[in-house]
Specification:
Elements lengths: L20 H14 L24 H10 L22 E3 L5 E4 L14 H13 L17 H14 L4 E6 L3 H14 L3 H8 L2 H6 L13 H7 L2 H4 L1 E6 L1 H5 L9 H4 L5 H4 E5 L11 H21 L3 E7 L10 H13 L3 E5 L24 E4 L7 E5 L5 H7 L7 H17 L1 H19 L6 E7 L2 E6 L8 H21 L2 E2 L1 E3 L4 E4 L7 H17 L3
Parallel strand pairs: 2-12, 4-5, 4-6, 6-7, 7-8
Antiparallel strand pairs: 1-2, 3-9, 8-9, 10-11, 11-14, 13-14
Helix pairs in contact: 3-16, 4-16, 13-14, 17-19
């Protein structure tokens, strides 16, 4: 199976036989990379180190890219083709049999790494424990709604629900559904007379037999337009400035926002996430002023715009920008003061910060109204505070909760293994080890700046070591160094990614990362530092 970065590849055809013959031949040619992961477990240990047989990208990958461009316009998002049957642990093997240390979490779902034997064993054990003897290809939870299955979801909720949060919804489009809920709450609409008339219930009825009847595939922008919600209510998104400036550029690691471009101009107001200096503890005074500046901007919008129904903020802005617990505490108070919903997006931070939820460290006066989670929890959906949804709206949206028994078993397996193997504690220590050694490497030359983050959500910026009078020239120089670094790292067997607009390198490994893996990356960083020429 191959993971196409940001999305799993799916042909955009409902009838495969309707695809022209030439395209079908191309599809068959690359099918071995697109087929589902086999159940057979690779019992061999992970490689000791990266091993490159070709330059990156290799000849086979180039041919596959040329072929797949004819099948999908999303080919520009592909970073590499992964051979999952050969990949193991923290190492991925590509279509040219190059072995990379994966520090970008390309599969973006099972954070236990590739072909994790413990995961497969745990999955089968839980399947037997909850007496789930057979699962159809859709894995639809409601076709197997037994007492044991209910116990499974109760056990999962007990593990992942924070205090004062008692509702969980599994849904492919959690962000859009929360927006609709928030606007309806502020508008005091009758969900029975409003939503049920606008949602395409005939579509849901037609797809019941296909296991999609609880998938939230309604036409969101059409609903908003028909009931004029976008003219009455807005969502205030708090984003790092660089993301606001480039939010429509698909090359950004910004998938959670680009899918809303169709209503972006109508539905959103934007405010800046605070720009802080790192390390946070060494720049407390300046960061305090920057955070207050952001809060003042937000309150100014809330005072001026009476139509804001919710504040949406990522626990870690863009997966790379951090703020202090005090900032989030004050922001939550603003939401309470102006009677707007407080939505925390944990799709990037969930399970990646040495714990399940980053927002639990903020000591909020009141828990968030909604918390969005994503593929790292093997499911998409959101958590909800006890009093955040009234019964009318609750009864309506419950019909759009998509629960897959395979995903639930996978999530339970991941959570159990993380706890048993103490991966949160080990991963956080490994992250501190990497940051400490990177700072030592960076002492004599500030090439790797603003080192920040923790556990599996670390970032740093690439900066040239010379000071130029012309700011634009300096930015171009940094951009060239950044691109050279990505190419150098990948050709050295380290699969890494980043944000080319801010020259930020993302270090997002699997939760099973160890010091020995970071040592490989530190060696590559040291080599790049010695050989850098510009």
């Amino acid at each position: 199976m191959v993971f196409l970065y940001h999305r799993l590849y799916r042909p955009h055809f409902t009838d495969f036989e309707a695809i022209p013959k030439a395209f079908r031949q191309i599809f068959y040619k690359i099918n071995k990379y697109l087929s589902p992961l086999k159940k057979s477990i690779n019992k061999s240990k992970e490689p000791t180190y990266p091993k490159m047989l070709t330059n990156f990208p290799g000849p086979k990958m180039k041919n596959l890219l040329n072929d797949i461009e004819l099948l999908s316009p999303e080919a520009t998002n592909i970073k590499t083709f992964i051979n999952h049957n050969k990949s193991q642990g923290n190492y991925l093997v590509d279509s040219d049999n190059n072995t990379f240390l994966d520090l970008s979490n390309l599969q973006n779902k099972n954070i236990l790494g590739y072909n994790n034997k413990l995961f497969f064993q745990k999955f089968e054990n839980l399947k037997n424990f909850y007496q789930i003897n057979s699962i159809n290809k859709t894995g639809n939870f409601f076709e197997y709604l037994t007492e044991e299955n209910i116990k499974l979801i109760e056990d999962i909720m007990e593990q992942i629900l924070p205090n004062a949060m008692d509702k969980i919804f599994f849904n492919e489009n959690p962000e859009e559904l929360i927006y609709l809920i928030s606007m309806l709450r502020r508008g005091n609409f009758s969900s029975k007379n409003l939503i049920n008339e606008k949602l395409d219930l005939e579509y849901l009825e037609e797809n019941k037999n296909e296991g999609n009847n609880f998938n939230c595939n309604f036409n969101f922008p059409q609903i908003l337009n028909e009931i004029n919600l976008t003219e009455k209510f807005k969502i205030l998104k708090i984003l790092p400035e660089k993301f606001i400036e480039n939010k429509k550029n698909e090359n950004l690691d910004y998938a959670s926002y680009t899918n809303m471009n169709f209503v972006e101009n109508k539905i959103f107001e934007f405010a800046n996430f605070p720009i802080l200096k790192y390390p946070l503890k060494e720049n407390m005074l300046e960061n305090y002023h920057n955070e207050n500046k952001s809060l003042e901007e937000i309150e100014k919008i809330l005072k001026k715009k009476f139509d804001v129904s919710a504040i949406l903020i990522e626990a870690v802005g863009g997966g790379e920008t951090w703020a202090t617990p005090t900032y989030f505490y004050k922001l939550r108070n603003l939401a309470i003061l102006y009677n707007v919903d407080f939505i925390v997006d944990e799709r990037k931070s969930g399970l990646s910060v040495g714990r399940i939820w980053q927002h639990e460290l903020w000591n909020l006066p009141v828990q968030p109204d909604f918390v969005i989670f994503g593929n790292k929890l093997m499911n998409k959906g959101f958590l909800c505070r006890k009093d955040a949804i009234d019964e009318n709206i609750m009864n309506t949206i419950c019909g759009f909760s998509n629960v897959n028994i395979n995903n639930l078993l996978s999530l339970k397996s991941v959570l159990d293994i993380i706890k048993e193997e103490k991966y949160f504690e080990k991963g956080e220590k490994a992250g501190e080890y990497f940051k400490r050694n990177l700072k030592d490497l960076n002492k004599d030359i500030n090439l790797f700046s603003d080192i920040r983050g923790k556990a599996q959500l670390i970032a740093f910026d690439i900066k040239s070591d010379t000071n130029e009078n012309k700011e634009n020239f300096q930015k171009e120089k940094d951009k060239i160094i950044f691109k050279r670094f990505l190419s150098f790292a990948r050709n050295s067997g380290i699969f890494i990614d980043g944000n080319e607009f801010s020259n930020t390198v993302y270090v997002r490994p699997n939760v099973i990362i160890e010091n020995k893996h970071y040592d490989h990356f530190l060696n590559v960083l040291e080599d790049f530092k010695k050989n850098k020429k510009i």
